[in-house]
Amino acid sequence: MKFGNNKGAQARELGIGKSSLYYQLKQPKKDWATKVLIEKALHDNPSYGHKRLASHLKINKKRVRRVMKIFGIKPYRRRGKKWRKNKAGTGIEYPNLLINIMPLYPNHLWASDFTYLWFEEQWLYVATIIDLYPRRIVGLAISRSHDRYLVQAALFDALAHYPRPVIVHSDQGNEYKSQDYQATLKEIGIAPSMSAKGCPWENGYQESFYSQFKVDLGEVSRFQTLGELTAELYRQIYYYNNQRIHTIIKMAPVAFARRYDMLNLLVQKVS
Predict the structure, then answer these.
(1) Which tens digit of pLDDT belongs to each residue from 87-135?
(2) What's the burial of 174, exposed, middle or buried (CB within 10 Å: 0-12/13-18/19+)?
(3) What range does the domain containing 56 cover?
(4) Residue 168 belongs to some domain of the structure
């Protein structure tokens, strides 16, 4: 039986309501339009999951997740060459001061760590310091060697642009336990804090940052020179701080820090 354009007759034949028929006819087009938006967003933000995509596109997260499942869309997950830090101890143990404290304002608590990239047949090390309140990267250093000079350079970079924090947290790596690095913290008036051995989740802020940072950076083999790669590293840090939506704070770190400053100023005026 042919119904032509009679949607009511089609609905009765299929045993569904007319409104349901309209929904089923229009939904594929709507899903495809959403798919196009998702793929466009993933082109610029390849590691975004459905929650970040929903926030970025201002679309319901259940709809985003459903469309991604329908079309088999998955965020990019980078797999790279493995490297392990030298965790040999120096005999000095520092407690984890962050267990019973949470960041209350910008530049209250910082966390430091470094990661690695395989480039031009050797390792390149990238050290960063993150401000735990707005999740903003405040310090950056790049070197072919992982030693106290690398982590100190990241610390000095942060202190050149932001007020000193109360605590700087790290893992138990020798770079952070070195006498020079600890003497620097003491001289500046910063309390050291360290994760327990074998507990990388106690520095989870940095671990989480690096996992997504490497995805956003992409394959480093596409760069022709170390200078090109270095420039892209700085560009990615700017992108992370100023544009990338953080899952917890629902906005970019710089925007979150600015909101705190505005609210703090408003409170001061009222009081």
Answers:
(1) 444 557 789 898 878 889 999 999 999 999 999 999 999 999 999 999 9
(2) middle
(3) 7-71
(4) yes
